[in-house]
Amino acid sequence: MTSTSPAMRLSLSLEAAGRPRVNVEGEVKRAVELARRRMAFAAVLFAFSFIVLAGRIAEIALLGGADAPVGAREAAEHTVGRADIVDRNGALIATNLPTASLYADPRAVIDVDETARALAGALPGLDVDHLRRKLASPRSFVWLERGLAPAQQAGVHALGLPGIAFVDEERRVYPQGSLLAHVLGYTDIDNQGIAGVEKTLDETLRRQAIDGKGPLALSLDVCAQAILREELARSVETFRALGATGLILDPTNGEVLALASLPDFDPNQPVSEATDEQRFNRATLGVYEMGSIFKVFTTAMALDYGVVGLADGFDATSPIRVARYTINDTHPKARWLSVPEVFIYSSNIGSAKMGAAVGAERQRAFLDRVGLLDPLTLELPEVGQPMEPGTWGELTTMTVAFGHGVAVTPIQTAAAFAALVNGGTLIHPTLLKRAPGPVPGKRVVDKTTSDVMRALLRLVVVDGTGKGANVPGYSVGGKTGTAEKASARGYRRDALLSSFIAAFPMDAPRFVVLVTLDEPKGTEETFGYATGGWTAAPTVRRIIERLAPLYGLAPVAHEPIEDEMAVTFGGTSTLASLSAP
Predict the structure, then answer these.
(1) In this structure, are strands 216-217 and 85-86 parallel, antiparallel, or unpaired?
(2) What is the 3-state secondary structure (H, E, C) of 85-138?
(3) DSSP string of 423-452?
(4) Among candidates 479, 454, 471, 473, which has minimal Cα distance to 532?
(5) For an engineered disulfide with 531, which of 5, 180, 482, 545 has Cβ 3.0 to 4.6 Å away?
């Protein structure tokens, strides 16, 4: 017996009853297909709704949604990306960390008092009354707290307060703390550079972040920086100084390897908590009379102009009297001094006469040539304006010759000094790491003058006022500087700026080191003296003792500079035979 489907039997039954025969099976198929279509449409509609809802939830979690206050959306859109900053060896010294900032839409806050109390409980640093005023604001957007830690964000989020939300931002952090504060500077709450390298190179740092070019490399070495800062801090404590500054410079290419100013500050902390004194960069913004360090420039100037030779000399038997002023020697020899002796014994009388022999016009031209009369070009906004006399007469010429009357920044002093020991080329200093190879510069003195100056500087440390800076095996050369600080009533004998500038090794200098102490006090070990030779020179010695091994410089038994000195001074490398009759 042939089987029939239920639909076929229903159709036959309807026909037997006198009704029209219909295709029931086709109708069922159509119903099933329609149901499938409806189910598929419902599934698509559900999926679309789910996607929209998920996106909405994510938007609300991040920014409060499309209806979030304009301030929140703008803050998120304008988060400033900044490239990392590293030292010359790749050590990280500035970077960004993701953070969250808390804001409120007062229109959506249901209970102002309850919300204020809850937030103050989760974030103890916030004041309840201050929060109430913000939450009661008619505005649609108010910041409550910037730069929250993850735990703080989680604590606020767990409260589930209406009208309270977060914006993802970035915070600038400095892993080395205060070590490089005056070079790096700092950014504001919106990650905009407002001091130091962060300000000067703000656009560069943003562009490198956008272009993915990697970190910005500075010329500084964090190890050399640590040595410099530690030794400066040690001397400030030992000599009870008001502050100090110092730097280490490569005279061959102008790279600044270290630069410090004390007191300093931690750029990771609110800058408003630091004092003006802490934020002040003595190395680049401070302008000072450098005292006898200027005798380096006076001697080089006189030799380079051909006004004097090593065989010449000046009568330093008695003080110089010009009008109502008297120029004395601190430790008078009271005799005729040769040109090398004038320099090595740091004679004010001999230097004044040497300056007068050169003349005011040529003296000013020389100081300008070595970069001491114009502001220095550097990758910092904190750069001081040199100060010079309004009139440059005979007395000014004499006082400038031994370091009074012209005020300059320490970094200018170091750059000019570097030109006199590197062969005679002035190279503008930089805080950026330079590519290997020759660096263009401007010749400011003849190479022969530079050779003679290196020999004279070495003698200052061997036999002169700079013995405290001597480091056996490293042929250190340098010059002391002690200047009385100027005030409205004239110079203060009880307030000294004590300095020492050095280069080593003197046969081919690789480093220039400058240290300046502000109002150091004498100790029992210094017999009460607070001059540069007793305070700054030993500081430089300790820096060199630690710096040389760091750069792989081993001490040598025989120093090549001694041979050059013997040639320069006619067969001797000491002060013997250098005195003029």
Answers:
(1) parallel
(2) EECCCCCEEEEEEEEEEEEECHHHCCCHHHHHHHHHHHCCCCCHHHHHHHHCCC
(3) TSEE---BSBPPPSS----EE-S-HHHHHH
(4) 479
(5) 482
Report pTM.
0.81
Q: Are strands 92-104 and 142-148 parallel, antiparallel or unpaired?
A: antiparallel
Round to whole Å and give the CA distance between 292 and 346: 7
Give the whole-angstrom CA distance, residue 581 versus residue 569.
16
What Cα–Cα distance (Å) separates residue 167 from each residue in 71, 97, 100, 384, 569? 10, 14, 6, 40, 72
Q: 512 forms bridges with which residues in the sheet?
A: 249, 503
Q: Do domains 76-218 and 225-568 have the same CATH topology?
A: no
Q: In the 8-state DSSP scheme, what is residue 345?
A: T
Catalytic residues: 292
CATH of domain 76-218: 3.90.1310.10
Is 417 in contact with 296 (CB distance < 8 Å)?
Answer: yes
Residue 290: closest CA among 321, 245, 248, 254: 245
Per the CB < 8 A criterion, the answer to whether 503 and 514 are in contact is no
Residues paired with residue 485 on neighbouring β-strands, in sequence order:
492
β-pair partners for 207 = none
Closest CA to 110 of 131, 136, 85, 75: 136
Which of left, alpha, beta for 527 (phi over 0: left; psi -120 to 50: alpha)?
A: left
Q: What's the residue count for the chain? A: 581
> Around Cβ 435, how many Cβ atoms within 10 Å?
6
What token pair was written down for 261?
């100013």
CA 303 vs CA 140, 295, 306, 480, 507: distances in Å: 73, 12, 5, 20, 20
Q: For residue 505, is the peptide bond before it cis, meaning its omega torsion is within 30 degrees of 0?
A: yes
In this structure, which topology does domain 225-568 adopt according to CATH?
Beta-lactamase (3.40.710)
Q: Using CB atoms within 10 A of its CB, is residue 3 exposed (0-12), middle (13-18) or buried (19+)?
A: exposed
With tokens 């009379």, the residue in question is 289
Residue ranges per structural domain of the chain: 76-218, 225-568
What type of residue sits at position 28? V
Calculate helix-pair angle for 410-421, 294-305, nearest 10 degrees.
40
Tokens standing for residue 230 = 């530690």
Can you state the angle between helices 348-358 and 394-401, rounded to 10 degrees? Answer: 130
**Per-residue confidence in pLDDT tens, the chain, 581 aa:** 455 555 555 455 545 555 555 454 555 566 556 667 667 666 656 655 555 455 544 444 444 444 555 665 555 555 558 999 999 999 999 999 888 889 999 998 888 899 989 998 988 888 888 888 989 888 889 988 888 888 888 998 898 899 888 888 888 999 999 999 999 999 998 889 999 999 999 999 999 998 888 899 999 999 999 999 999 999 999 999 999 999 999 999 999 999 999 999 999 998 888 999 999 999 999 999 999 999 999 999 999 999 999 999 999 999 999 878 899 988 889 899 999 999 999 999 999 999 999 999 999 999 999 999 999 999 999 999 999 998 998 999 999 999 999 999 999 999 999 999 999 999 999 999 999 988 999 999 999 999 999 999 999 999 899 999 999 999 999 999 999 887 767 677 778 999 999 999 999 999 999 999 999 999 999 999 999 999 999 999 999 999 999 999 988 876 666 665 665 555 544 444 444 44
